[in-house]
């Protein structure tokens, strides 16, 4: 295998400085449900934003999740072209591009740089046996010393090992391993590169040292040439190639910075670049995110410690696998009337669903929801956990079910907040982000459940906005300065004491439900495996 090469702009090249005539930057986020392009100007204002949906993720078996990387590239082209057109801009007006995307996915390319199989994405839970094997191979303590995390099914290495064990022909064909956003980077630039925040979620990076781990590569018998070059998030590493310029409307030669995994980029987009400020982001997954000056680990490995998209800084995050995904599951399976009404009225169907939930009192009259549709990470690290509605009565309606989903996701995020408190991570303020952050009801539920002030900021584009700020950070002088100039608090939701007391009682029951059901979850998973073999 030949070592993957980088373009001649190399690491350490600087974004055009303040004398540049081009003062717009584009951020592109490759999410689970779609790709979004955001263009900002030198004040940080959003000049244009456009999205393109992805095809629904494939689930060949329960708890499996796959997507076609070519579909990401198709959506990325559409979103970029639409944003440039919407902003009445030309490709030469874009001074730099930043990338963000869903973390942990495994994109395998062959010698001709063709995708070998569908990408196994972040929420896939099939690789518990491989996680256990890798932990035993490295030793749990040593693995945490290097990666700051335990081996979990959601991370990239167990997915790669599953391909090794179950699809050996595909594994032998592999010449390059990429993360989702970095596959799109390859299509944009023709080069293989990544950055430290996204690489932190592979279990291949030495997180304290911010470089690929030779020890892990040796343990996996994996050639270093399979991996892309890794750098810091604000560093320009590649440039738009001619073919991609034609496909997207960008100018050939435009610098592309490292960018960040979706949560690190969202952290930048929310201004979480100093201690004491947290963000709560509800997209497909739900994430509590906090900045740290040093690698800061939970002894139980229940929250993740990764490199931040800020140079020489780290972050911790607690992850709910099925946050916004739970509401989308309800929409797709039971929300046909709202989808049709939204289409006729030019509205978002989620707004109609949440409006229905507003008619129900806090606590959903005793209906509780465990959002474990794709297993769970924080705090349970349990790929076999299942979604549960508990407390249903004949009185409950669709509206109760929808509100219970919103409350259950907030309870799950509260689990992460409790771990942060035990770790000594300060949380004077929590900033709401993602699709859930745009809902006043969901923000208020979080404020009441967390018993914390929830605020919104002027920047509402999350990961794509953070990626644009990373692209612009050279012009501003630093990532921190870009956030200081561009981000400010706009609204706040304060906890209501009476509702907080009620939610505190229900939260205790919510936590107890998992403990009582844990063994049952395992039995259901075992029966499912037996049924698969019988079929």
What would you say this structure looks like, in words?
The protein is 41% helix and 19% strand. It has 535 residues and is an alpha+beta fold. The chain folds into two domains: 24-271 and 459-490, ATPase, nucleotide binding domain (Nucleotidyltransferase, domain 5); 320-458 and 496-534, 2-Layer Sandwich (Nucleotidyltransferase, domain 5). The protein has a seven-stranded mixed beta sheet. Strand 16 (277-282) and strand 17 form a beta hairpin. The relative contact order is 0.13. Residues 1-20 have low confidence and may be disordered.
CATH architecture title of the largest domain: 2-Layer Sandwich
Strand portion = 15-25%
Largest sheet: 7 strands, mixed
The counted number of beta strands is 24
Would you state the CATH class of the largest domain?
A: Alpha Beta
Structural classification: alpha+beta
Query: Can you list the strand order of the major beta sheet?
Result: 18-19-17-16-22-23-24
Distinct helical segment count: 19
Give the proportion of residues in helices. Answer: 40-55%
Instruction: Give unreliable regions as ranges.
Output: 1-20
Question: What is the CATH topology of the largest domain?
Answer: Nucleotidyltransferase, domain 5
Total individual domains: 2
Task: Please tell me how large the radius of gyration is.
Answer: 22 Å
């Amino acid at each position: 295998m030949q070592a993957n090469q980088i373009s001649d702009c190399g690491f350490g090249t600087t974004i055009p400085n303040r004398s540049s005539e081009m003062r717009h930057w584009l951020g592109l986020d490759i999410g689970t449900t779609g790709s979004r392009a955001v263009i900002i100007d030198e004040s940080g204002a959003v000049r244009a934003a456009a999205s393109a949906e992805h095809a629904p993720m494939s689930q060949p078996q329960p708890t499996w999740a796959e997507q076609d990387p070519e579909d990401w590239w198709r959506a990325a082209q559409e979103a970029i072209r639409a944003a440039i057109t919407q902003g009445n801009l030309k490709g030469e007006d874009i001074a730099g591009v930043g990338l963000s995307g869903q973390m942990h996915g495994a994109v395998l390319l062959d010698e001709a740089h063709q995708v070998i199989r569908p990408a196994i994405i972040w929420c896939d839970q099939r690789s518990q046996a491989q996680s256990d094997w890798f932990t035993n191979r490295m030793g749990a303590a040593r693995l945490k010393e290097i990666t700051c995390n335990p081996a979990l099914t959601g991370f990239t290495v167990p997915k790669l090992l599953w391909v090794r064990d179950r699809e050996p022909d595909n594994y032998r064909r592999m010449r390059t391993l990429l993360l989702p956003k970095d596959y799109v980077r390859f299509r944009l630039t023709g080069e293989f590169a990544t950055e430290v925040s996204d690489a932190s979620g592979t279990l291949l990076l030495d997180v304290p040292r911010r470089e690929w781990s030779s020890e892990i590569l040796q343990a996996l018998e994996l050639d270093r040439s399979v991996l892309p070059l890794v750098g810091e998030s604000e560093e320009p590493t590649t440039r738009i190639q001619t073919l991609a310029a034609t496909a997207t409307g960008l100018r050939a030669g435009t610098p592309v910075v490292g960018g960040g995994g979706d949560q690190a980029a969202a952290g930048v987009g929310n201004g979480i670049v100093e201690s004491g400020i947290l963000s709560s982001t509800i997209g497909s997954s739900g994430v509590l995110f906090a900045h740290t000056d040093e690698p800061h680990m939970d002894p139980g490995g229940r929250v993740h410690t990764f490199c931040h998209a800020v140079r020489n800084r780290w972050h911790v995050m607690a992850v709910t696998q099925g946050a916004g995904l739970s509401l989308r599951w309800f929409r797709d399976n039971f929300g046909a009337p709202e989808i049709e009404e939204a289409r006729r009225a030019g509205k978002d169907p989620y707004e109609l669903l949440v409006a229905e939930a507003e008619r129900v009192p806090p606590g959903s009259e005793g209906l509780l929801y465990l959002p474990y549709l794709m297993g769970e990470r924080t705090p349970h690290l349990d790929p076999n956990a299942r979604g549960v509605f508990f407390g249903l009565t004949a009185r409950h309606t669709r509206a109760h079910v929808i509100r219970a989903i919103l409350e259950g996701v907030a309870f799950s995020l509260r689990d992460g907040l409790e771990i942060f408190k035990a770790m000594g991570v300060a949380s004077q303020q929590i900033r709401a982000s993602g699709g859930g952050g745009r809902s006043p009801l969901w923000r208020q539920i979080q404020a009441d459940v967390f018993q914390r002030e929830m605020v919104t900021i002027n920047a509402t584009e999350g990961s794509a906005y953070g990626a644009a700020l990373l692209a612009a950070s050279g012009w501003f002088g630093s990532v921190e300065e870009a956030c200081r100039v561009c981000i400010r608090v706009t609204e706040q939701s304060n906890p209501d004491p009476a509702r907080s007391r009620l939610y505190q009682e229900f939260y205790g029951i919510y936590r107890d439900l998992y403990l009582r059901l844990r063994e049952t979850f395992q039995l259901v998973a075992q029966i499912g495996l037996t049924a698969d073999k019988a079929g």
